[in-house]
């Protein structure tokens, strides 16, 4: 019998869980556990890491998992690599649901960089107001440029004071609107945006708002990943699962 593990934590994973919950498929939804108040799911949920690729492989065997859907964030490179390795070791079919990246438009003022270090380097030396839209796991790199005023937006309240001498934390959960992000950038006189190329519609508002205000955006590219079976929509995942079911997997 098919038993599915969804590696989740994204809006795409949530949408997939809602659809699977309406079927007779047996599925488990896995959260990494970084968010204090995760979105409720209509499926059984496990929370926390697996202990690397070996730990995930043991979990797949112990729980009788027959199929894995990697619907984690496009920048969750470690988890995705672990899934590739664990599924290869256990011969469990793996499909990756990954939203298409954003592409630069004619009026966008992007500076594309390969990683966080590149983003820090790309910021100017003169003091500026920077909207740092990269999540709460990665802001520490920007302590290297303390002259800037940083606006950060987190899903959860930070657990302690940030080591950024001039910073403001906004606690909010997306999706966000273009008008809302326009107001945010105008009210705080933002003149730089730093973000990761996550893709999708839920986090795009800041990109569109920056374009309208002619604000430069430092865009961090996605990490390089090994070859894998990738799709861009929930419907494609469901078609794959249906095909696997017909094969008697």
Number of domains: 2
How many H/I helical runs?
7
| Total beta strands | 12
Average pLDDT metric: 93
The largest pleated sheet is described as: 6 strands, parallel
The portion of residues forming beta strands comes to 15-25%
Cα-based radius of gyration, to the nearest Å: 20 Å
**What is the share of helical residues?**
25-40%
CATH uppermost class of the largest domain: Alpha Beta
Largest sheet strand order: 3-2-1-4-5-12
Structural classification: alpha/beta
| Low-confidence regions | none
Throw out a few tags for this protein.
single chain; 249 residues; alpha/beta; Rossmann fold; 2 domains; six-stranded parallel beta sheet; 7 helices; 12 strands; 29% helix
Structure description:
The protein has 249 residues and is of the alpha/beta class. It has two domains: 3-100 and 224-246, Rossmann fold, CATH 3.40.50.720; 110-220, 3-Layer(aba) Sandwich (Rossmann fold). The chain is 29% helix and 21% strand. The strands form two sheets. Strands 3-2-1-4-5-12 form a six-stranded parallel β-sheet, sandwiched between helices. Helix 5 crosses helix 6 (205-212). The longest helix is centred in the middle third of the chain and has 14 residues, at 77-90. The protein is elongated.
Produce a short descriptive summary:
With 249 residues, the chain is of the alpha/beta class.
Q: What does the secondary structure layout of this molecule look like, with pairings?
A:
Elements: E1 3-7, H1 11-20, E2 26-31, E3 45-47, H2 52-62, E4 67-70, H3 77-90, E5 94-97, E6 110-113, H4 116-122, E7 129-133, E8 149-154, E9 167-171, H5 178-187, E10 192-196, H6 205-212, E11 217-220, E12 230-231, H7 234-246
Helix pairs in contact: 1-7, 2-3, 5-6
């Amino acid at each position: 019998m098919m038993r599915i593990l969804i590696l989740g934590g994204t809006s795409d994973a949530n949408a997939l869980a809602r659809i699977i919950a309406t079927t007779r498929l047996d599925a488990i939804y896995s959260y990494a556990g970084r968010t204090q108040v995760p979105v409720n799911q209509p499926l059984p949920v496990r929370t926390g890491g697996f202990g690397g690729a070996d730990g995930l492989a043991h979990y797949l065997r112990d729980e009788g998992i027959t199929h894995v859907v990697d619907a984690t964030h496009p920048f969750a490179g470690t988890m995705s690599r672990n899934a590739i390795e664990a599924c290869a070791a256990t011969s469990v079919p793996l499909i990756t649901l990954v939203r298409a990246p954003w592409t630069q438009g004619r009026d966008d003022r992007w500076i594309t960089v390969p990683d966080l270090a590149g983003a820090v380097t790309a910021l100017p030396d003169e003091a500026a107001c920077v909207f740092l839209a990269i999540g709460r796991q990665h802001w520490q790199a920007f302590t290297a440029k303390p002259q800037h005023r940083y606006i950060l937006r987190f899903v959860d309240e930070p657990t302690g004071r940030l080591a950024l001498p001039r910073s403001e934390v906004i606690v909010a959960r997306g999706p966000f609107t273009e008008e809302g992000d326009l107001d945010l950038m105008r009210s705080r006189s933002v003149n730089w945006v730093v973000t990761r190329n996550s893709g999708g519609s839920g986090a795009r508002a800041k990109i569109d708002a920056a374009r309208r205000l002619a604000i430069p955006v430092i865009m961090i590219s996605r990490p390089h990943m090994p070859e894998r079976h990738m799709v861009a929509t929930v419907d494609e995942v469901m078609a794959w699962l249906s095909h696997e079911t017909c094969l008697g997997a």
